[in-house]
C-alpha cells in the first residue's frame, strides 16, 4: 500500500430562462424551432389561451390535422409556461388524441407548467401520470424554481410545496424527482435549499455529489470541501465519485501539490474501490494536458497493476498528448503497446493516430498505420479510411490507395457474408 501511494504521489507531482407569467399577447419564444413546428405550436398556444367553453377547445385542437410531433408539443408546453397559461387541458386532450403518446419530455414540461403556476394539485395529477407510465423526472420538471429564486417570493416555499407533492406521489417518481430537484437547485446556486431537501429525504452520496459537482464546476474548492465535510457529519460516507470531484477540481485549477495530498488521503481512508478507474483517468488526463507524458505513463502502469481497464478517453489523451508535444514516434509506440495490453481499444487507437498523422501532412505514415491495423485483421473506422485514402490520392500515391482499398474491401465482403 505504501509503495502504491508513493508511486502515485511521484506521478501526480510530476504531472501535476425564465420570463414573466403575464398571459399578454406578446409572441412566444418559438423562433429557434423549425417553421412548421413553430407554426403548429403557436396555433396550439393561441387556442389554449382563448380557452373555449364545453368541448370547443378540444374540437378546435382536433382540427389541427395529423398527429403532433414531440417537438411541436414541447414547444407549445414551453410557450404556455412562459405565458403563465395552464397546460393541463391541452395535455389531457393530447393524452386521448389518437396516434399521440406524450413523451417523457412532455410529461416533465407539464410538471414544470404546474410548478410555474404554483398549482400543486395540478402538479400532483401530472406526477400521477408520470408514475403510471414509469417515466423519470428530470431537471426540466423543476426549471420553474429559477423564476421563484429570481422573484421577490422565497424559493423555500416553492421547494417545500414541491417536495410535499413528490412525497404524495411516492414510488420511483419520488426517487427520480428528489434527485432531479437537488440537481435543479444546485444548478441555480440554491445550495441551502438543496441541502434541506437532502436532509428531509435521504442523506445519500449521490445527492451530495450533485452539490460537489456544481461547486467544483465553479472552481469553488472550499465550498466543495464544506459539502464533503457535511456528508461525513451526516454519516454519509463519500464514494469514489465524491473524491474524484475534489481531485478534478484541484488539478483543473493547477493545485497539483494539494492533489497529491488528496490522493494519499484517498488511499488511507477510502475502501478498496477508491481510487477507481476514473481517478486514474483524471490523473492521466491532466498529466497529458500538461505535456507530462512520462508521468502520465507511470500512472497508467499503476492502473494496469491494479487490474483496472482504461477507458478509450485515456488512450485518446495519451495519443494526442504525445502527438502535440512532438513525440510522434512515442505515439506510434503507445498505440502498438496498447494493442496487446488493451485489445478492445486497438481499432479506435489506430484510427485516431492515422487521422492525426493525416492532419499533420504525414499521409504516407497515416496509410502505413491503417495498413498495419488491417494486417492485424481489424477494420479501421470508415472515416479514417476515407480521409487517409483521399489524402494519398491527392498526393499522387494511387498505389498506396489501391493497397488500402484491397484490404478494406475484405472487411466489406466479410460483413456481407455474415449478414
Automatic annotation (TrEMBL):
<feature type="compositionally biased region" description="Basic residues">
    <location>
        <begin position="1"/>
        <end position="10"/>
    </location>
</feature>
<dbReference type="InterPro" id="IPR011990">
    <property type="entry name" value="TPR-like_helical_dom_sf"/>
</dbReference>
<comment type="similarity">
    <text>Belongs to the PPR family. P subfamily.</text>
</comment>
<feature type="compositionally biased region" description="Low complexity">
    <location>
        <begin position="13"/>
        <end position="33"/>
    </location>
</feature>
<feature type="repeat" description="PPR">
    <location>
        <begin position="204"/>
        <end position="238"/>
    </location>
</feature>
<feature type="repeat" description="PPR">
    <location>
        <begin position="239"/>
        <end position="273"/>
    </location>
</feature>
<dbReference type="Pfam" id="PF13041">
    <property type="entry name" value="PPR_2"/>
</dbReference>
<dbReference type="InterPro" id="IPR002885">
    <property type="entry name" value="PPR_rpt"/>
</dbReference>
<keyword id="KW-0809">Transit peptide</keyword>
<feature type="region of interest" description="Disordered">
    <location>
        <begin position="1"/>
        <end position="36"/>
    </location>
</feature>
<protein>
    <recommendedName>
        <fullName>Pentacotripeptide-repeat region of PRORP domain-containing protein</fullName>
    </recommendedName>
</protein>
<keyword id="KW-0677">Repeat</keyword>
<feature type="repeat" description="PPR">
    <location>
        <begin position="276"/>
        <end position="310"/>
    </location>
</feature>
<dbReference type="Pfam" id="PF01535">
    <property type="entry name" value="PPR"/>
</dbReference>
Amino acid at each position: 500500500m505504501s509503495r502504491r501511494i508513493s508511486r502515485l504521489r511521484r506521478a501526480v507531482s510530476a504531472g501535476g430562462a425564465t420570463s414573466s407569467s403575464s398571459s399578454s399577447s406578446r409572441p412566444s419564444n418559438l423562433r429557434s424551432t423549425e417553421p412548421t413546428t413553430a407554426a403548429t405550436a403557436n396555433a396550439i398556444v393561441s387556442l389554449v389561451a382563448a380557452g373555449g367553453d364545453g368541448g370547443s377547445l378540444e374540437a378546435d385542437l382536433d382540427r389541427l390535422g395529423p398527429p403532433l410531433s414531440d417537438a411541436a408539443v414541447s414547444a407549445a408546453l414551453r410557450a404556455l409556461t412562459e405565458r403563465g397559461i395552464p397546460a393541463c387541458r391541452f395535455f389531457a386532450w393530447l393524452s386521448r388524441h389518437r396516434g399521440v403518446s406524450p413523451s417523457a419530455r412532455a410529461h416533465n414540461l407539464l410538471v414544470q407548467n404546474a410548478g410555474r403556476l404554483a398549482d400543486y394539485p395540478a402538479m400532483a395529477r401530472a406526477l400521477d401520470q408520470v408514475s403510471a407510465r414509469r417515466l423519470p423526472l428530470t431537471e426540466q420538471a423543476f426549471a420553474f424554481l429559477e423564476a421563484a429564486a429570481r422573484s421577490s417570493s422565497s424559493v423555500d416555499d416553492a421547494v417545500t410545496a414541491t417536495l410535499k407533492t413528490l412525497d404524495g406521489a411516492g414510488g420511483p417518481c419520488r426517487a427520480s424527482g428528489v434527485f432531479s430537484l437537488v440537481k435543479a437547485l444546485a444548478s441555480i446556486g440554491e445550495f441551502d435549499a438543496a441541502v434541506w431537501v437532502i436532509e428531509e429525504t435521504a442523506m445519500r452520496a449521490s445527492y451530495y455529489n450533485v452539490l460537489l459537482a456544481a461547486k467544483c464546476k465553479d472552481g469553488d474548492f472550499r465550498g466543495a470541501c464544506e459539502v464533503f465535510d457535511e456528508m461525513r457529519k451526516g454519516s454519509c460516507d463519500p464514494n469514489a465519485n465524491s473524491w474524484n470531484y475534489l481531485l478534478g477540481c484541484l488539478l483543473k485549477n493547477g493545485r497539483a501539490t494539494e492533489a497529491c495530498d488528496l490522493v494519499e488521503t484517498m488511499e488511507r481512508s477510502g475502501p478498496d474501490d477508491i481510487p477507481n478507474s476514473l481517478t486514474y483517468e483524471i490523473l492521466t488526463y491532466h498529466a497529458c494536458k500538461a505535456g507530462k507524458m512520462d508521468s502520465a505513463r507511470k500512472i497508467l502502469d499503476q492502473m494496469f497493476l491494479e487490474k483496472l481497464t482504461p477507458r478509450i478517453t485515456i488512450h485518446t489523451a495519451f495519443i494526442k498528448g504525445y502527438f502535440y508535444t512532438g513525440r510522434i514516434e512515442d505515439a506510434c509506440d503507445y498505440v502498438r503497446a496498447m494493442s496487446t495490453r488493451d485489445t478492445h481499444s486497438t481499432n479506435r487507437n489506430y484510427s485516431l493516430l492515422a487521422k492525426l498523422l493525416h492532419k499533420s501532412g504525414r499521409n504516407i505514415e497515416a496509410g502505413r498505420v491503417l495498413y498495419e491495423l488491417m494486417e492485424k485483421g481489424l477494420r479501421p473506422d470508415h472515416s479514417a479510411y476515407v480521409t487517409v485514402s483521399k489524402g494519398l490520392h491527392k498526393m499522387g500515391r494511387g498505389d498506396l490507395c489501391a493497397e488500402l482499398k484491397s484490404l478494406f474491401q475484405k472487411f466489406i465482403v466479410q460483413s456481407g457474408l455474415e449478414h
